[in-house]
């Protein structure tokens, strides 16, 4: 057997250097550690073994008794029992989320507020807490349920968006992750995700630059426009090179992808790139629907003409990959279908040629393809590669014949960019350098740092060949099959089926039942002995079965309104109730239930008296009552004798909670006081750190080391280890009742809604996330969560229980 040791420094007790001292809670630590332990409040210390806040003598640990037994014995059985009970405490989950904490942390800040985007006609603008009057572009990426009227619990906006994201395929989420993360010069930023609750659509929201001018109104650029051409060409190249840094290449560009800001700088629009990819996907899907043989010159000509008419320029290898996805065979096109960074050179070259040659460029391309198709049909040519090679050769010769003067230096490289083999094309950096020399003297070219092509730092992929481009428009049949959403087959995936209370409620699988027998507002709820107990202003206490929620008994005897209720387990289980006249009644809950009282007693009255507002019970056999005379009284449960009166609050003591060996009292004066259960002395006061702000505390709830206080202005405050961690407003009016179980927090009050929050964090910081809400018929006066069931008492005399079908 090993000798006993200090729980802080792990040194064995020896009576000389490591002296064991006994704290008020019964646990022991060495004298040196007790001196050095932090003491947040005067004359108190937190036990390092059980974390209970206990009294600490001002003269130091030497005034504490020495634990002689520990010098020769192992830790006491009481400590072992306490630690065993703490470790075996069962934490009942209110909801097991489909997604992990890491998933939530990754996506929560990327979801824009539901009021962030305003829709007026066909225009979209940022509003609310974001930038006003800033137009944005939207891209549909997923569907979610528009109406959850069949659900008892209404998911919050963020939770619904998280469910929608979780229902998407991982590949789609990864693309969205990369797109939102892009913050490169020359690329329009994708701000985040926004859910249109009216139509049930999740959008990517991107910044919208001014309309691009690569349109039909610019028919031809002259030599005087060389600088203009060079600047625009360089900026387009720089934008794509920036995407290469993120591991993204495109292989496809359209005139609508290039936008301009108020200073005339060119931007590549990511949202428009995805739209272009979808247009290509849709066009190819339509054209190939009737093909049953390998594609030849005629069919490929149809694809090219369709793309050119839409102002879309696509490299050959990317086009081949699109066709492969449609199970379309292309003769002799498999050996050189290499989609890579060099695939971006082709569409940039064509876009620049359109900028130089204007409208007639597209017309001549279409005519050239059509002539090639007719020639191929006449000569029986089915090999598209021959047709494509002939097409690019004619294009190169046309470039050399059309361009001249100051454009001569880039004629050669533009011709090389049209090469069918991507491995023989020049790099995009080489194209950038050549265009730069139109405005910058060659002797200054050595100053730039583009010595080699960029390589992606992430997983490399083509944007237009990705998952998001395969999605189609909202309202079509394909959308319901392709777009992921909250109702998709998430339950079919292994490891994503564990949904309990909130999950079943949100799916409409949760049952609720009304329990109606009271004649006035419900004031308290308690569970014990297989029963639910409810108190009311009708002066009665009703007993309900927890099996079928039927009424089984009524306790009668109070002459005043019953304001508080608790149940006490033990050798003789009892229910204790307190009324507005100062009466405290003890009822036996041993089955079969009886009508008569075990005992009752009354508080002494004075001119300030307004009755009992709260009750609590300690393991020492004391019942505590919070009163309208600003005091807390401890009573003996056995005979009702007054043990002591605790004073200090400056207003009505409205709520009491016992947790971890401490009595917490909340008052209308806005403070929470902590009292020792052993000697009833004041340990410390919470809430005094905000002087001048008085918010009445109406309810307290505690679980393990977490304390939650609810206020009359709709605020809640969360303490951990008696340190304020979070203060926030979750309702617009008074919160009359609050309950906490593990990480789940429930609050209800005058707004007739049960607000469900999830508490997360650690000893450094705490976060509180709104999960959803349950609407009620009137003000919620009492809440109780017990083993997967949520009980709510209402001011309209109703008790509702929300439970699973099982």
Q: Please, could you describe this protein's structure?
A:
This is RING-type domain-containing protein. InterPro entries: Kinase-like_dom_sf, Prot_kinase_dom, WD40/YVTN_repeat-like_dom_sf, WD40_PAC1, WD40_repeat_dom_sf, WD40_rpt, WDR86-like, Znf-RING_euk. Keywords: Metal-binding, Repeat, WD repeat, Zinc, Zinc-finger. GO terms for molecular function: ATP binding; protein kinase activity; zinc ion binding. This protein is an alpha+beta fold. Among the domains are: 68 residues, no CATH class; 120 residues, Phosphorylase Kinase, domain 1 (2-Layer Sandwich); 219 residues, Transferase(Phosphotransferase) domain 1 (Transferase(Phosphotransferase), domain 1), CATH 1.10.510.10. Helices cover 24% and strands 30% of the residues. It contains 16 helices and 44 strands. The strands form 13 sheets. A five-stranded antiparallel sheet has the order 5-6-7-10-9. A five-stranded antiparallel sheet has the order 8-41-40-39-38. Strand 36 and strand 37 form a beta hairpin. Helix 8 runs antiparallel to helix 11 and helix 11 runs antiparallel to helix 12. About 6% of the residues have low confidence.
Quick summary:
The chain is of the alpha+beta class and 806 residues long. Helix content is 24%, strand content 30%.
Itemize the secondary structure elements and their pairings:
Layout: E1 20-22, E2 28-30, H1 31-36, E3 44-46, E4 53-55, H2 77-87, H3 101-107, E5 117-120, E6 123-126, E7 134-143, E8 153-155, H4 157-166, H5 170-181, E9 190-196, E10 201-207, H6 226-245, E11 248-249, E12 252-254, E13 258-260, E14 266-268, H7 270-288, H8 297-309, E15 312-314, H9 316-325, H10 345-357, H11 359-379, H12 384-402, H13 408-417, H14 428-436, E16 461-462, H15 477-482, H16 501-506, E17 510-516, E18 522-528, E19 531-536, E20 541-545, E21 551-555, E22 562-568, E23 574-579, E24 583-588, E25 599-602, E26 612-617, E27 622-627, E28 632-636, E29 642-646, E30 653-659, E31 662-667, E32 672-676, E33 682-686, E34 697-703, E35 706-711, E36 715-720, E37 723-729, E38 735-741, E39 744-749, E40 753-761, E41 766-775, E42 780-786, E43 789-794, E44 798-804
Helix pairs in contact: 6-10, 6-14, 7-8, 8-11, 11-12, 12-13, 13-14
